[in-house]
Amino acid sequence: MYKEQKKKIYVVAGGTFDHFHKGHELFLKTAFETGDYLAIGIISDKMIAEKPLSYSIEPFNIRKQYVEQYFKSINGNVKVQIMKLDEPFGISVSDSHIDKIIVTKETKPNAIIINKIRRKNHLKALKIVVVPYVKADDNRKISSFRIRKGEISRHGHCYKKLLFSKQKFYLPDALRVSLREPLGRVFSTKKEIDVYIKSLQGNKKTFKRNEMIITVGDIVSLSLLNKKIAPSLMIYDYITRREALSEKQQLYLCSNTKTTIYNQAGTIRRSAIKSIYKAMNTVSKTKEKYGIKVIGEEDLLVLPTILMAPLGSLVCYGQKDLGFIAVTITEKTKEKVKELLQMFT
Predict the structure, then answer these.
(1) What angle do CA 342, 56, 58 make, to 5 degrees?
(2) Residues forming a β-bridge with 13
(3) Please, which residues bridge with residue 81 across strands?
(4) Which pLDDT score is estimated for 205?
(5) Measured between alpha carbons, how far is 286 from 269 in angstroms, rounded to an integer?
(6) Does 3.40.50.720 match the CATH number of domain 10-146?
């Protein structure tokens, strides 16, 4: 007698797979271990426009590359097919060979819709396998949106947890030299600064896509305002090079002030961090412009500002003897700032 050949199991799964993280690893691992043939659909670039903070979603080719690299690292016997999704459900509603669909709690409703469509098409319903979320170190789920928003790293490290871990961060003397190194591009002369700001004025896509422009420092804030660019958030103390701003300059900034905070020189107060965090959330939701006046000194507040800002945002600050510094927020920038803050006492 011949042994009855075991039926091959066909599995389907899909997603955006942006900023590939630990949750994606568990999702794909579960899909890989669930069947013999696996079809993975990756959302195309043209389908991401409606997603939150879509401007910082990685291009399709990069997202696909991360998925491919993960499957190579597993090195199993399951046959994997990766497809581009130009429509929400792809082959899941039409392929008669598929047996199971892999989802998360968030995407399970889509699987239910898929099964309704399959029944109308006289196809068998798919068995729905729900993969649990992987949590960050703040006990909330890791998601690509939280990474794009700037809340966590793709490894699940929560920046807010670090920032709120102390009542006050003190700058150690040994770190002062390291902090003199600029965190972004430096524009030293007035001409260089003017040319750069003009480039921001010409970049209409930036304003359409609603990336945040954040300034830390009085002269930097005024430089943008004077060129008719209103930053999303400005942080200032009415002082430059230890001298008070003119009354006219103070009034110009004052008209944008929504709140006042206290922060001593050489420190970063948790209450100041909370105010900046609240301001960013307000700006993100309402798109209104927000100004924070600091009583004390605002220089070091650029660090928590960078650590809390969404990916793709622009943080501009002034630094003595260097000039105007523009920092485009990336994962690498955030990690560098995190390491610096971990050295504060």
Answers:
(1) 100
(2) 40, 102
(3) 39
(4) 52
(5) 26
(6) no
- Helix or strand run (H / E) with residue 294: strand 290-296
What is the largest distance, in Å, between two alpha-carbon atoms of the chain?
Answer: 98
The residue type of 70 is Y
User: Cα separation of 13 and 40, whole Å?
Assistant: 5
List of residues 6+ apart from 261 with CB closer than 8 A: 269, 271, 272, 275, 292, 293, 294, 295
**For the chain, how are helix, strand and coil distributed in percent, rounded to 5?**
40, 25, 35
What one-letter code names the amino acid at 75? N
pLDDT, position 210:
57
CA dihedral (329, 136, 53, 13) positive or negative: positive
Q: Where are the domains of the chain?
A: 10-146, 158-342
pLDDT, mean of each 10-residue run, the chain (345 residues): 68 97 97 94 93 92 96 85 94 96 97 97 97 97 97 96 96 93 94 89 56 92 90 91 79 84 96 96 88 95 97 93 94 97 96
Per the structure block, which two tokens stand in for 70? 């993960």
The helix/strand/coil state of 296 is strand
In whole angstroms, what is the distance from residue 247 CA to residue 336 CA? 37
CA separation for the pair 143, 145 (Å, rounded): 5
Task: Give the pLDDT score at 208.
Answer: 45
196: enclosing H helix or E strand: helix 190-202
Residue 126 is given by DSSP the state P
Sign, CA dihedral 50-51-55-59, equals negative
Q: What is the C-alpha to C-alpha distance for residues 316 and 186, in angstroms, rounded to an integer?
A: 10
Distance (Å, whole) CA 310 – CA 302: 14
Question: What does the alpha-carbon distance between residue 267 and residue 261 come to, in Å, rounded to a whole number?
Answer: 13
- In the chain, the amino acid numbered 160 is K
Of 241, 246, 186, 248, residue with least CA distance to 217: 241
